[in-house]
Design a protein that fits this description.
Elements lengths: L4 H21 L3 H9 L5 H42 L19 H7 L12 E15 L29 E4 L4 E10 L2 E12 L8 E12 L2 E7 L24 E11 L2 E8 L10 H4 L6 E4 L4 E10 L2 E16 L9 E17 L2 E11 L12 E6 L5 E6 L1 E12 L4 E12 L10 E16 L2 E14 L4 E16 L6
Antiparallel strand pairs: 1-2, 1-3, 1-20, 3-4, 4-5, 5-6, 6-7, 7-8, 8-10, 9-11, 10-11, 11-12, 12-13, 13-16, 14-15, 16-17, 17-18, 18-19, 19-20
Helix pairs in contact: 1-2, 1-3
Length: about 500
């Protein structure tokens, strides 16, 4: 009569115990006598036990393979998160020393003169995402920016951009990129290249190449285009609308950066590509030549930050010093021209309230820093009075931005993000009545991530713009998105 698998395992363990006991007992004469009288197993039973032992070993080996696969997937996901944040992948851990030897880390701690061995890892990854956004707009924004909700692009004049209630489809959030890591001269060289399809500038409204990152980092030295040092990318909440909260610093610049890290502390400083946004204001009415007023960038912007990371989250304080220059095209000697001093302080933090809740908090204030904000404002504008005797001067524009969001993880697959952000500009006296003064933004969503490669979700958004004159306009919309991500690590290890 055939035995069930649990019965065979019990029988196998009992037999092993009996054989072990007999082996020990056989070391004495009395034990040898008992061994001679022990019941023998039939050939069929021995064959069954051997087959069961082989099956158990196979199950054990399969479990080890599954565990190794899980560890590999965890490591791959961590690498992807690091690469998304522009952090070079960590070097492989060294093989553990024999028990009798002193571990290398312990030796370094006891002898500061012993330096760590240089990293020797090599990695290359191609990654990307295909994303479709369906947006049902209940009001209207500037058609060139209809695939995102920017308060500065909301009209304050009814019908300015046409009738309300637009249906929008966009794949502009789709992206493609590559990273490479290798040891060069005793330091790890990390290179990242990434672009999406959300065109800006002269190509605003088009679905075309839009560079996001292109930089190399060798040890503490970073050169290329990536997040400004004045910015905290971790402040951005888990939203699916492309542009995001307006009241936060969010810009990527060409830069040369130095970074120092020690434990939870990080200090970074950089010189960054300068660019200015100049508003001629009402002066254009008095002198049409001032329509040629433009930014004049003679020296780079100087940025720096200090960051502290901990189990509860992180806090970062960043600063910027800049020259906000201006000149006029088409006039003798390009006058009026000149420059003003701009500065800003950006305080940000993520707080892990619970294991499922992260609060994003940020406040930024400065003068002449609108170019670094995610949306709204201008760096330089005319102030003074046109009453005789006229007193007109160029002034940097004060700006305040705040952001507060909560990211909540309902379970392993569902998450939500809810919050509010605001940009407040202190308009200069000679700016026109339609100059941007305040932008507000709020959103809430529900996202489903059945697998790290997939995301589906919906988001409800509201935005409002207020002009210097007091005129306001608002917009509400709902967005549904589907994202499919891939990485070469899924196919090649």
């Amino acid at each position: 009569m055939a035995c069930s698998q649990p019965q065979r395992r019990t029988r196998l363990l009992a037999t092993i115990a009996t054989i072990g006991g007999l082996g020990l007992a056989g070391l004495t004469p009395a034990g040898a006598a008992r061994a001679q009288t022990a019941p023998a197993l039939s050939a069929q039973e021995v064959q069954e036990l051997r087959a069961e032992l082989k099956a158990i070993k196979a199950e054990s080996d399969a479990a080890k393979v599954q565990e190794a696969d899980r560890e590999s997937r965890i490591a791959a996901l961590q690498r992807r998160l690091d690469m998304a944040a522009g952090v070079p992948p960590a070097a492989p851990e060294a093989t553990a020393s024999p028990p009798a030897a002193v571990p290398a880390e312990a030796e370094r701690e006891s002898n500061p003169e012993v330096s760590p061995a240089p990293a020797a890892s090599k990695a290359f990854e191609i990654y990307g995402a295909a994303q479709l956004d369906y947006i049902q707009d209940f009001n209207r924004v500037d058609p060139s920016w209809e695939a995102s909700l920017r308060p500065s692009k909301i009209p304050t004049v009814a019908g300015q951009f046409g009738s309300d209630g637009q249906s929008i489809f966009s794949v502009r959030q789709s992206k493609f990129g590559a990273t490479a890591t290798q040891e060069i001269g005793g330091h790890e060289l990390f290179v990242k290249f990434e672009f999406d399809l959300y065109a800006t500038g002269d190509h605003a409204g088009e679905t075309t190449f839009h560079l996001q990152h292109f930089f190399g980092r060798w040890g503490p030295i970073l050169a290329g285009k990536t997040d400004s040092v004045f910015m905290d990318g971790d402040l951005f909440p888990n939203t699916i609308e492309y542009w995001g909260p307006p009241g936060m610093v969010y810009v990527r610049t060409a830069q040369l950066r130095l970074t120092w890290k020690q434990g939870p502390h990080e200090i970074a400083g950089a010189i960054e590509e300068p660019f200015n946004d100049i508003d001629p204001g009402n002066l254009r009415i008095l002198d049409p030549a001032l329509a040629g007023l433009q930014g004049d960038e003679k020296i780079p912007d100087f940025t720096g930050h200090y960051r502290y990371d901990s189990g509860w989250g992180h806090v970062q304080v960043a600063g910027i010093l800049r020259r906000v220059g201006f000149e006029t095209i088409g006039t003798p000697n390009n006058v009026p021209k000149g420059s003003r001093f701009g500065w800003g302080v950006n305080l940000t933090s993520n707080v892990n309230v619970t294991k499922n809740d992260v609060v994003h908090l940020g406040v930024v204030y400065g003068e002449g820093i609108a170019s670094f904000m995610n949306d709204g404002g201008t760096d330089l504008a005319p102030g003074g009075s046109l009453l005789l005797p006229a007193t007109v001067q160029a002034e940097v524009v004060p700006l305040l931005g705040v952001t507060a969001y909560l990211d909540h993880q309902w379970n392993s697959q569902f998450s939500s993000s809810i919050g509010y952000s605001r940009t407040q500009v202190d308009n200069r006296s000679l700016q026109a009545g339609d100059a941007f003064r305040t932008g507000q933004y709020a959103s809430v969503n529900l996202l489903w991530t059945p697998d790290p490669h997939l995301m589906f979700g919906g988001e409800l958004m509201w935005g409002q713009r207020e002009d210097k004159s007091g005129a306001t306009g608002d917009d509400s919309r709902i967005q549904f998105s589907a994202k499919y991500k891939f990485t070469s690590k899924d196919f090649f290890q």
